[in-house]
Amino acid sequence: MTTSFFKANSDINKPYALMDLDDTLFQTQRKIDAWDLPTTERETLVCATVNKQDEPLSFMSQRQAIFFNWLLASTELIVVTARDRSEIKRVKLPFDSWQVLTHGAIILTSDGALLSSWQQHMYSKLAPLQDKLNQLSELFTSHSQSEQSHLVFTPHIDSFNNGSTDEELTIYLAIKHAQKDHQALVDLAEKLPTLIRDFDQDFYVHVNANNLAILPHAVHKRHAVQFLLEHHLDHQRPSFGFGDSLADLPFLQLLDWYGMPNHGQLHEQYQSKSSG
Q: Which InterPro entries match (predicted)?
């Protein structure tokens, strides 16, 4: 066996960096204050996203901005986010590689086109669940319209190709609480399996801060990342990534290295286990 030793090489083969966005690379002012993040003086914040009225919404600290700039220069940065195709347009950062969107239901190529093979795969998984997703949508729509309700309900819909034509399909359902009552969302999540037959067989629920998502099992960041790793990314190139939520961990575990910011759901889960 011949032993070889490491030699520095300035001809860098960039690793892949698969990155969650919200609360990992940037966050709202409310969360900046809650987490007491460093280098977040108002005059030094960098706007990362805008709201529907084109007003600044989320910001990077100086440390996050330096980190993001390093990622752009030294890696092939791949977005992995719950944001859908309209929401990602409100992120005012440069991306030029693959984008995994809508919790993994959508994959965009480097030129912004839909990855057709993944589209057709997702169509085959989502089409049989449309009746149940529509049934849940009707329940939440009627409930959110009542005066006592503080729930804000949003179905996430996109176009999928079935091999011959495009069809609009509901991907998943999102619920927020108007008064940001996290416990109310946790309580709702516990009641969801009683709403329709075989709920657990077809869906899973993810709750993080003021976001509750009802997702088909086929829709997951892990599934989309695994598809990219197996069919489109160079197996010789290393990969690493970061994410802040429990929903990120399964896709991160597919990579060579992964980590989390020192704030957010994953960090809090780790802290509670360590202290316990």
A: HAD-like_sf, HAD_sf, TPP-like
Provide the H-helix boundaries in 116-247: 116-126, 130-144, 182-191, 199-202, 221-231
Residues 256, 239: contact at Cβ < 8 Å? yes
Q: Which residue has the tokens 């969360």?
A: 31
The SS3 call for residue 170 is: strand
Question: Phi and psi at residue 200, in whole multiples of 5°?
Answer: -65, -25
Query: Mean pLDDT throughout 230-247?
Result: 97
Q: How confident is the model at residue 10 (pLDDT cuts 50, 70, 90)?
A: confident
DSSP letter assigned to residue 91? B
Sign of CA dihedral 114, 116, 118, 123: positive
Identify the pLDDT of residue 271.
81
* Cα–Cα dist 28/247, whole Å: 20
The set of residues, in sequence order, having a beta carbon less than 8 Å from that of 257 and lying 6+ positions away, is 238, 239, 240, 241
Alpha-carbon torsion, ordered 218, 175, 135, 224, to 10 deg: -10
* Helix then strand then coil, % of the chain, to nearest 5: 35, 25, 35
Compute how many other C-beta atoms are within 10 angstroms of the C-beta atom of residue 152: 13
Other CB atoms within 10 Å distance of the CB of residue 269 = 14
Summarize pLDDT for 11-62 with one digit per residue, the tens: 789 999 999 999 999 999 999 999 999 999 999 999 999 999 999 999 999 9
